[in-house]
Amino acid sequence: MDKPKSHQKDTAVCLLSNRPFGLYIHWPFCRAKCPYCDFNSHVRTTVDEQAFGKALLTEMTHMASLLPEHPSLSSLFFGGGTPSLMPPWLVEQLITHAQNLFGFTADIEITAEANPTSIEVKSMLEFRQAGINRVSMGVQSLDDANLKFLGREHTVKDALAALDTVRASFDAVSIDLIYAFPNQSAKAWRTMLAEALSLGLGHMSLYQLTIEAGTIFHTRQRKGEVMALDDDRAADLYEITQEMTTAAGLPSYEISNHAAVGQECRHNLNYWQAADWIGIGPGAHGRFAVFEPKRGCLSRIATMIRRSPAGWLNAVNTRGHGIEKKEIDTPKDWAHEMVMMGLRLSDGIHLDTIKVLCGPVESWLDFTAVDQCIESGWLHHDHKTSNIVATLDGRLRLNHILSAILI
Q: What mean pLDDT do residues 225-243 have?
């Protein structure tokens, strides 16, 4: 027998109130555009920091008005672009304003992305005083030839020195590394990864080099250059990555992210669990659920902010926000998001939770296809917990799995 709607409402609202809630702040400016980057980043030599900062504060206030009821923020993330180029006084203003608007959990995670150049490392030490308690550093490679290929401004020596400086002030530090360069051998990646693991960090993001449309690398690839390793050899390096990180006590908790127990990035887990967050700044996205009394159900709202910094600034000054598109996801849309993102996680997806928020499983998941994927060794279904998890082989073909199992 189905539960009464009032009970379903109470259960769903209770689930939402206990889910994490995050804030993403986008600083879109860089000193140079990396040839592999497809993020919303813009090269600027000068920025009107006062005007841009005021607009971020204004847009944050507007976003708060869209969520009359919300839990306290459990994570705040400064991304870009290059947020370590922000003036520390503005970082402090934004953190204070966020705390006043939303409140903070006692153990809030406040992350800033940074590059290992001397000017940015100096700023990060001031960021610590402003309230940042976690740094994600874009090291990208421990090979100078690879760094040159990627168009990075730093050297390996710069990166290691910057890392030492930042770790002296921050307990939580993560680095990004890229692998699967053209002609990169398994031996070369093993050597580099071993060096990275020897640093003793609690978190690392290890990404395969992918060629995204609209990037300089994509243009070069279309002209016939080989810009990344072929899929089969890249898969070999992925398996090496899983083996070495697990042995070192940093197993993957997401396809490309590895952490010691308790040091996972809470903000990014928010995305992968399809939980709630708001985004401010050019090109930022947000997703959050609200209960609509008139409809008697939950709605999942998606916001997309204007990408152009100039257009965004004008919109905020004119109407208080830069929202370009605001959509209400259907229950099936939300379920699909939870499945697509959740299967990236080592914990997988929790069917009972998705069912409470989005309705009957049969309306969004093809269990015949799920069973076929289980038989193929790509998925595992724990019937006791109702979790479905992608195996190592499944992670290597996740797009194919998703196209098969989602209705």
A: 92
Beta bridge partners of 104: 73
Please, which pLDDT band fits residue 329 given cuts at 50, 70 and 90?
A: confident
User: Which residue stretches of 168-274 are H helix?
Assistant: 186-197, 216-222, 231-247, 266-272
Tokens of 381: 């279904």
Neighbour-count burial of 69, counting CB atoms closer than 10 A to its CB (0-12 exposed, 13-18 middle, 19+ buried):
exposed
Token digits of residue 268: 């990014």
* Token digits of residue 368: 């015949």
- Beta-bridged to residue 66, according to DSSP, are none
What is the pLDDT confidence band of residue 353, given thresholds at 50, 70 and 90?
confident
Q: Taking a C-beta distance cutoff of 8 angstroms, is the pair 199, 205 a contact?
A: no
Contact 149, 225 (CB under 8 A): no
HSE, side-chain direction, 13 A CA sphere, residue 356: 15
3-state secondary structure of 132: coil
**DSSP characters over 16-50:** HHTS-EEEEEEE-EESS--TT--SS-EE-S---HH
**Cα separation, 310 vs 44, whole angstroms:** 12
Strand order through the sheet with 349-350: 349-350, 387-390, 379-382
Calpha distance 285→281 (Å, rounded): 9
Distances (CA, A) of 362 to 113, 370, 389: 41, 12, 18
Give the closest residue to 74 by CA, choosing from 141, 161, 133: 133
Burial class (CB in 10 A: 0-12, 13-18, 19+), 238: buried
What pLDDT sits at residue 1? 40
Average pLDDT over every residue of 359-376:
90
CA 116, CA 166: separation in Å to the nearest integer? Answer: 9
pLDDT of residue 4: 42
Distance, in Å, from the CA atom of 139 to the CA atom of 149, rounded to the nearest integer, reads: 13
| Distance from C-alpha of 288 to C-alpha of 275, rounded to nearest angstrom | 7
Helix (H, G, I), strand (E, B) or coil at 204: strand
Coil, helix or strand for 377?
Answer: coil
Burial 267-280 (b: 16+ CB within 10 A, else e): bbbbbbbbbbbbbb
Is the pTM for the entire model greater than 0.85?
A: yes
Q: How confident is the model at residue 17 (pLDDT cuts 50, 70, 90)?
A: low
For 365, which DSSP code?
A: B
